[in-house]
Batch of 3 targets.
Target 1
Amino acid sequence: MPLASKLRKSVDRLIGVIGLRHKTAKIKGRTKMSLVFPNRSRSFDEIKNGVRFTGYDGMFEVKFLVEASALKQRTAARCLSAFDSDRVSVLEAAAKLYERRRSNNLTLSLQDMA
């Protein structure tokens, strides 16, 4: 197995254990929580045609859907595989989208993944 693949798998495992953390920031003297992704589970939503996953901002659950078109795949199996192989990029895009919109239910499009 090439070194790059081993490194990516190690990073993915680490993210699964501790979550993808972004720096906390102070807003008007208060510290806001970081968005984390401690749960590696994901599922394909056939109705919405995308992969669902969750993140957490403190005690609040944030639900995400990344559209199949954003993963550049059409079938459920390929979408899940693409999500797994690009997990770091997907989670980073999700965190950026959350910072912009601050909602508990967000959809990542192809535009968000660019």
Note: The first strand starts at residue 26 and ends at 27.
Target 2
Amino acid sequence: MAIILTALLGSTLGFLWHNWHLDCGYRLDFLVSGRVVVELKAVESLLPIHESQMLTYLRLTGCKLGLLINFNVPVLKEGIKRIVLGL
């Protein structure tokens, strides 16, 4: 059984506010199968602002799961943070 995943790279997010379509420059790094938002970073450490950014992306896309991946760590496993909306 093969599992096929699709990924959108660099998708822009707009949203509707009081019947106005706003395109505020939100840009996803990856949207995997329309269900998981992946945000890539290369920073000293992940800060609360990065989590807030991910939560905003999750709310705007309607997704429940996001992965923050920081590449500026000695072991990649230490740079992955899973964020779940609504649990």
Note: The chain has one domain: 13-84.
Target 3
Amino acid sequence: MSTALRHRLPYRRCAAPQARETPARSIPRVEHLTDVVIASFAGGPKNPPWRHNLIANPEATVELGSERFRVKAAVTTGEERQRLFNRQTEQMSIFADYEKKTARQIPVLVLTRIG
């Protein structure tokens, strides 16, 4: 069982044109008002495959419950990235643990609805 499932994160299913041969992924949803996802990969040394796919093909389809909509992904940087990451660590301290486990900066992506 994935770490995110053990911590009962709300999930969305995100399907983007694949940059690699990988299936659509379920990605933990971070914020409820803004669609934000964190590519923590449980603090692993590499980014999760879905992050690579969203960078290569930023337009994707999201399924959240019975709702389905198109989004465009963008990687956050600087103060915005830190603010969003901090907000998540305040809600779920496991993300602070993930940050301590890895030498990489954990990417935070914003999914903006389109169309």
Note: Helices lie at 3-6, 49-56, 78-91, 94-101.
